[in-house]
Design goal:
It comes from Symmachiella dynata. With about 130 residues, the chain is mainly α. It is built from 7 helices and no strands. It binds heme C.
Length: about 130
């Protein structure tokens, strides 16, 4: 009986370990999944208080956390296919934003990079080419 109990305990522990391992894997999977273009727009670009405005603000310095978060969003965006339009053009438009955003994160020529990022992130230009009309 004791042996059986011990065996049951081993099996139970094994099950718990396996379950938590797969949970961890799931979590990793979740982290790897890029933020959808829609969410990047809603969370990073939309409105006067957006991350985009904060990161490109000439007068007020953005925090490292804001800069990194925005860069991450841009990279997520670039990984995906645009809902409309040419992929070549999408790559070009998104890469044009990633380069200056990387410079801001690294603290290289920040003032220049902010201007470049602002210019590259042309809402109208990109929407015309890649945002489906409702
Ligand atoms: C490099 C391309 C690109 C740039 C730059 C860009 N957008 Fe977008 N935006 C898109 C695409 C693509 C969609 C459509 C997403 C979809 O339908 O999944 C979109 C959609 C949106 C939406 C609607 C949310 C949605 O997904 O329906 C808002 C709001 C928005 N953009 C705001 C902005 C603002 C403000 C700027 C400029 C500061 C901007 N975007 C710059 C590509 C871009």
């Amino acid at each position: 009986m004791r042996k059986l109990l011990a065996l049951a305990a081993v099996v139970a522990v094994g099950a718990v370990v396996t379950a938590s391992a797969s949970l961890a894997e799931e979590k990793k999977e979740e982290e790897k999944k890029p933020m959808s273009i829609h969410d990047v727009m809603e969370k990073g670009f939309k409105g006067g208080k957006s991350l985009f405005r904060a990161v490109t603000n000439k007068k007020k310095e953005s925090t490292e956390e804001q800069n990194k978060k925005f860069l991450g969003m841009l990279k997520d965006m670039a990984k995906q296919k645009p809902p409309m339009g040419d992929e070549e053009s999408w790559k070009k438009l998104t890469t044009a934003m990633i380069e200056p955003a990387e410079m801001i994160v690294k603290g290289e020529e920040v003032a220049k990079a902010k201007l470049a990022l602002k210019k590259a992130a042309s809402c109208a230009k990109c929407h015309k080419a890649h945002k489906p009309k409702e």
